[in-house]
Amino acid sequence: MPNNGKTYKLNEIADILNSKRIPLNSRQRNDRKGIFPYYGASGVVDFIDDFIFDGEHVLISEDGENLRSRNTPIAFKAKGKFWVNNHAHIVKGKEEFLNNWIVYHFSNLDLNPYISGAVQPKLNKEALLSIPIKIPQFDEAKQIVTILSAIDDKIENNLAINKTLEEMAMALYKHWFVDFGPFQDGEFVESELGRIPKGWEVKTIYDVCDVVYGAAFKSKLFNENKEGFPLIRIRDLKTLKPQYYTLENHPKKTIIETGEIQIIPDQTIFTTMEQCNQYAEEAKAIQQQKAVTGESDPHRAIHKCVQWGTDA
Questions:
Q1: Rounded Cα gap, residues 197 and 190, in angstroms
Q2: In b/e form, how buried is each residue of 230-261, taking b as 16+ CB within 10 angstroms?
Q3: Rg (CA), the chain
Q4: What residue spans in the chain does CATH classification 3.90.220.20 cover?
Q5: 292, 250 Cβ separation under 8 angstroms
Q6: Which of 249, 246, 251 shows the shortest CA–CA distance to 222?
């Protein structure tokens, strides 16, 4: 490999291994359940009983709306033994550090000039191999990758810590408010939900919250240029990243404030206080500490709890 700073094409710095991919439909996967990850365009979609690849590789999304929306990574590393379907390009850097460089490059790249397909976005192999990749001298690039990788490791470690803390919080909540652990020596009374500590009450969300319903917004007025208010739809609650913004001044608009909770009609709570805080901060930076929440389908309107009762 040359060791001077220059611009490369992907096949000059990595082996393209698409020809080794083997797609399996859901029925085939159900018949082959196992321990090996089965990857698609955006990550692991199943686990099966065999593998094709072994070691560290890079997967780059080949098709799907996520190529435009970027709600999940379009380039990521897969390690160990795994299988890949035909919705992700698979490459392996010709030097170890290049795997990370490729991931960083594609994670920060505007792919729109290389994507084809109006209905189903696609990054075909020809387009993929046409993308220029700038790399400084390899010694310098390796130092950059070392620094960025250390940050990635710290982020991954923090996420693991957060998950542990969340599990501890849920266990503590269950101990107190489901199993009533601290109150076992006290008196219990019957309620419509079963036995509860004496002095407790059963209430609905309408008793302790002000509930505001989401509104339907016109999709033709959506934009991805962050013009107007961030538009929070149910699908955005998992990623914390509103895909669309709107300039529409809806008469039924609702304003998201820090600490509010989003609930969908089937009573599944998707957000946490931290998620609402992030939306509020995003909105604050956009326009006078306000954000619009809505849903293009009025039958899937978002519920909003805006104020907890003092006796909740």
A1: 9
A2: bbbbbebbeebebbbbbebebeebbbbbeebb
A3: 24
A4: 6-135
A5: yes
A6: 246
CA–CA dist 164, 115 (Å, integer): 39
3-state secondary structure of 84: strand
Nearest to 237 by CA among 283, 281, 270, 212: 270
> Shortest CA distance to 149 belongs to which of 94, 103, 82?
103
Token digits of residue 100 = 């990370």
Helix or strand holding residue 239 (H, E) = none
Task: Provide the whole-model pTM.
Answer: 0.62
CA-CA distance, 21 to 32, in Å (whole number)?
Answer: 17
* Interacting residues of 287 by C-beta distance below 8 A, sequence separation 6+: 228, 229
Residue among 72, 95, 69, 73 nearest 3 (CA): 95
Take residue 218 and report the two structure tokens written for it: 């016109």
Residues, the chain, total?
312
Task: Find out whether 75 and 107 touch, Cβ atoms under 8 Å.
Answer: yes
pLDDT per residue rounded down to tens, the chain (312 residues): 445 679 999 999 999 999 999 999 999 999 999 999 999 998 999 999 999 999 999 999 999 888 988 888 999 999 999 999 999 999 999 999 999 999 999 999 999 999 998 788 999 999 999 999 999 999 999 999 999 999 999 999 999 999 999 999 999 999 998 999 999 999 999 998 899 999 999 988 888 887 777 777 888 888 888 888 888 777 776 666 788 888 887 665 566 666 777 666 544 444 444 444 454 444 444 333 333 444 333 333 333 333 322 333
* d(C-alpha 249, C-alpha 242), whole Å: 18
**216 — phi, psi (to 5°)?**
-90, 125
Phi then psi for residue 226, to 5 deg, are 60, 35
Q: Say which CATH topology domain 6-135 has.
A: Adenine-n6-DNA-methyltransferase TaqI; Chain A, domain 2 (3.90.220)
The answer to whether 64 and 120 are in contact (CB under 8 A) is yes
